[in-house]
């Protein structure tokens, strides 16, 4: 750990006593200063903490990134001895005072997470090669996307600060967390102890430390950044060439999961000229026997991508690094890089469903519930052929909207496009033809779909069997995306 066990207890006492929690800070600062802090404008927060009581000092040091008088910092951290706080790196000397040495973030209702100070807060200072990442966008994406159903055992691969493990402990009886970096494991152990949690912590390369073991839930925010395979920062670079880390995790998944188990991880994949990116990613799961749902959330061009990741480690002005990275992309015909969430499930069926798709729209949180529901819908679809699908009753999704585009002509409006839009959940939109529109419009949960189709066939003068046959895959698709939901009971 970064501190002794007694030191961690003392730090917890100091933070609790001062009410250095998300709520405590928000109450102290009020909405205006809190809003300012979110935009890195600390002026109002500094005015609200001028009296430098313990909470005020902690806010000034760890939120507003100020250098504060030693006596005030020592008082704010007491009973943690200042010597131990300095030795553990929590604070560091700067000018004639002390400033934060580590990022000590109040998180959730009453948690704290320890991580390194980001590159942006220490311009000019190179990041440690085993830099421990704080809670950024990717971290939150995985937190939000994780299926939060109760499980016996959960594994966090590449735990870093331990923030994923903190969340896992809310719904898993036993949590295991691994990392290649000894330094990261010290941070994770300290985060666990500070929050009164107890995880099994193991050191090693990806799945090696848990070889032969299975878990009900596995999550990983791995070092997914793609490039030539050189490692300068372990939180970002896996040492694998290209997007191989994503494929490696997929290949490892069948041996990691219990029956019915779920694995979720973040990944980057390359879009290679002349190759379908979806086929490339789907290929990762061939032969695994796992159901897979991969959603691409973002796509970046190589230049923007390299810039982003060089800025992340404070190396944006290294033209050679940038050129070498871009050369690698050119040599491998990489036109773009996709980012997304991989969700896998060991369903035990011999006809696994693999779906790789773009999902760029904003999704109604929590994404984890959407993932769980997607797999539930696959369970419904898997055991039904077209006949069985049409025998069910369905109801259109809550609040489903129809958007029309029409052109005014001599005979009034002529409809060009009709789009169904889900205002909730995954917020899919989809262009549909009038027959599908009528089908969805009539889905009020009362009639079996086959009977609904018979009415439609009569109204449109089509043979009912023909319509039923054509409807099978369309209905499956509408169910998979949640436009219509089966009515049970
Ligand atoms: C992107 S950070 C994620 C940290 C944290 N889990 C989160 O979600 O914020 C990736 C983590 O994986 C660790 N890591 C890098 N290479 C690894 C490897 N080969 N095996 C295991 N862990 C690795 C890094 O040390 C780092 O802590």
Automatic annotation (TrEMBL):
Residue span, DUF7782 domain: 372-486
Molecular function via GO: N-methyltransferase activity; nucleic acid binding; protein methyltransferase activity; S-adenosylmethionine-dependent methyltransferase activity
Domain (Methyltransferase small): residue spans on this chain: 138-268
Domain DUF7059: start-end pairs: 17-100
Keywords noted in UniProt: Methyltransferase, S-adenosyl-L-methionine, Transferase
GO CC terms, sorted: eRF1 methyltransferase complex
Keyword DNA-binding assigned: no
InterPro entries, A to Z: DNA_methylase_N6_adenine_CS, DUF7059, DUF7782, Euk-Arch_PrmC-MTase, SAM-dependent_MTases_sf, Small_mtfrase_dom
One of the protein's GO biological processes: methylation
Family, per entry: Belongs to the eukaryotic/archaeal PrmC-related family.
Official protein name in the record: Methyltransferase small domain-containing protein
Organism lineage string: Bacteria, Bacillati, Actinomycetota, Actinomycetes, Micromonosporales
């Amino acid at each position: 750990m970064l501190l002794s066990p007694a030191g961690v207890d003392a730090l917890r006492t100091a933070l609790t006593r001062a009410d250095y929690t998300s709520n405590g800070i928000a109450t102290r600062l009020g909405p205006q200063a809190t809003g300012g802090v979110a935009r890195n404008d600390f002026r109002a927060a500094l005015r609200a903490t001028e009296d430098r009581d313990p909470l005020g000092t902690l806010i000034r040091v760890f939120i507003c990134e100020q250098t504060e008088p030693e006596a005030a910092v020592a008082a704010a951290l007491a009973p943690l001895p200042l010597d131990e706080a300095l030795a553990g790196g929590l604070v560091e000397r700067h000018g004639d005072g002390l400033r934060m040495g580590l990022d000590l973030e109040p998180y959730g209702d009453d948690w704290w997470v320890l991580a390194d100070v980001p590159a942006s807060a220490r311009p000019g200072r190179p990041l440690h090669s085993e830099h421990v990442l704080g809670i950024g966008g990717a971290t939150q994406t995985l937190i939000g996307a994780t299926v939060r159903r109760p499980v016996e055992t959960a594994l966090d691969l590449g735990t870093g600060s331990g923030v994923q493990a903190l969340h896992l402990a809310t719904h898993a009886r036993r949590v295991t967390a691994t990392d290649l970096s000894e330094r990261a494991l010290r941070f994770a152990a300290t985060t666990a102890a500070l929050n009164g949690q107890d995880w099994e912590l193991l050191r090693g390369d990806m799945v090696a430390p848990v070889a032969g073991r299975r878990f009900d839930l596995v999550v990983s925010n791995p070092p997914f950044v793609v490039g030539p395979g050189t490692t300068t920062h372990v939180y970002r670079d896996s040492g694998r060439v290209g997007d191989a880390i994503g494929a490696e995790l997929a290949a490892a998944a069948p041996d990691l999961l219990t029956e019915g188990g779920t694995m979720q991880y973040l990944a980057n994949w390359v879009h290679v000229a002349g190759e379908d990116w979806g086929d490339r990613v789907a290929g990762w799961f061939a032969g695994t026997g796992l159901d897979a749902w991969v959603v691409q959330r973002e796509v970046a061009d190589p230049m923007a991508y390299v810039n982003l990741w060089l800025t992340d480690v404070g190396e944006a002005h290294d033209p050679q690094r940038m050129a070498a990275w871009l050369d690698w992309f050119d040599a491998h015909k990489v036109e773009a890089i996709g980012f997304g969430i991989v969700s896998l499930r060991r369903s035990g069926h011999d006809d696994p469903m693999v779906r790789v798709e773009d999902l760029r729209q904003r999704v109604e949180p929590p994404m984890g519930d959407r993932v769980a529901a997607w797999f539930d819908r696959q369970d419904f679809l898997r055991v039904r052929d077209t006949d069985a699908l049409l025998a069910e009753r369905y109801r259109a999704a809550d609040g489903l909207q129809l958007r029309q585009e029409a052109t005014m002509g001599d005979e009034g409006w002529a409809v060009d496009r009709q789009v169904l839009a889900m205002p909730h959940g995954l917020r899919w939109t989809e262009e549909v033809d009038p027959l599908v529109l009528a089908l969805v419009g009539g889905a009020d949960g009362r009639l079996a779909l086959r009977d609904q189709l018979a009415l439609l066939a009569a109204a449109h003068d089509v043979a009912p069997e023909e319509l039923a046959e054509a409807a099978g895959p369309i209905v499956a698709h509408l169910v998979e995306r949640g436009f219509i939901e089966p009515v049970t009971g």
